Amino acid sequence: MHARALLALDEDPHVQRKVTELMLSVLKDTRTLPAVEGVRRNVRTRHRLRVSDVAGMFDAIEEFNDVIATERGSGEPARVISVRYRRPVGPATMHRIRATLRYALNIAIRQERLIGLNPAAVVELPDAERPKALVWSDERVADWNRELHDRLGIEQQRRGDRRNSWRRDRPARTGTCAPGRAS
């Protein structure tokens, strides 16, 4: 028997490197690289990856979401700037992070025999509910346009001659063009 085959996960000092290599070799699609980076940043891969480690990663993500909300709501410019380009991680993104980790660990189980149980498969996350589609009725569009013009006027007064560069929410987050398409 090969000596590596005798090493258990808790005895292998290079688990994080191996899992990272597997994730990068298997997930060659460039759209998944941000998810791989997120997993690498958030999972503190120890010699033994447990379910509590993966659950702790998601708890840390939720805690950081709370930090972002607190800092933005503080009103203090320095605190708001500290989270300026950080966006909270939503439930759907957490499900994608879990799926990426699960997939990589499944490959590790099949190819390298690094671990026997996939801890990412056991972790439970809250459901990611999608917003209900709303029809962009004439009334909603009129309200949206009215609010937009009001906000533009206020923003123009505040900024003076400077150019406006900000986004405004649509009448419905998942708006549709025709009433028959909303279900």
From TrEMBL:
GO terms for molecular function: DNA binding. Residues 155-183 are annotated as: Disordered. Gene3D superfamilies: 1.10.150.130. Residues 155-172 have a biased composition (Basic and acidic residues). This is Uncharacterized protein. It comes from Nonomuraea phyllanthi.
